[in-house]
Specification:
CATH architecture: 3-Layer(aba) Sandwich
Order of helices and strands: HEHEHEEHEH
CATH topology: Rossmann fold
CATH superfamily: HybD-like
CATH class: Alpha Beta
Distance between the termini: 21 Å
Strand content: 15-25%
Strand order of the largest sheet: 2-1-3-5-4
Shape: globular
Structural class: alpha/beta
Largest sheet: 5 strands, mixed
Number of helices: 5
């Protein structure tokens, strides 16, 4: 287990037997921006947590998440937090301010605040630093490695 995988595993390990929703955000037509959605697709059928691939419209799923009343919400998105491409970082909701640049119309913080104002839920925001977000369906090598690492880690935590 490398350092990045260990950090993510350590932060999320307590969710092992909880009612969890994993929520992927991104645009698969814009390179690395699709990372959150790709993680959800790769986990489909492999884990006990519920998966929501929200694409570029996370706001359309706010009520869906609220109705499910999960104990934990794990949001995965490609965000620019000025790190090396492929870096994975678990953020607390209060860290999701202006220094994190999202490619989506609704900021991650507002999305999370809207959910938290309706239900009590522990939120874990997993950011993946993109290398490129131009119009292409190709994922950079570093972000592909990060996606694989998240898939492996979340499969361990939420094994069926």
């Amino acid at each position: 287990m490398n350092a990045s995988e260990k950090e993510v595993f350590d932060r999320l390990a307590s969710l092992q037997n909880s009612k969890t929703v994993i929520f992927g955000i991104g645009n698969t037509l814009k390179g690395d921006d699709g990372a959150g959605c790709i993680v959800c697709r790769r986990l489909s059928g492999k884990i006990s947590a519920e998966l929501i691939d929200a694409g570029t419209v996370p706001e359309n799923y706010i009520q869906v998440v609220i109705r499910k009343k999960p104990q934990a919400l794990v949001v995965i998105d490609a965000v620019d937090f000025k790190a090396k491409p492929g870096t994975i970082k678990v953020f607390e909701p209060e860290q999701l301010d202006s220094f994190i640049i999202s490619t989506h119309t609704l900021s991650p913080r507002i999305f999370i605040e809207m959910i938290c104002s309706s239900i009590e839920v522990d939120v874990y925001f997993i950011g993946i630093q993109p290398a490129r977000i131009e119009l292409t369906e190709q994922i950079s090598e570093r972000v592909e490695q990060a996606i694989g690492l998240l898939e492996k880690t979340l499969t361990k935590i939420f094994s069926k």
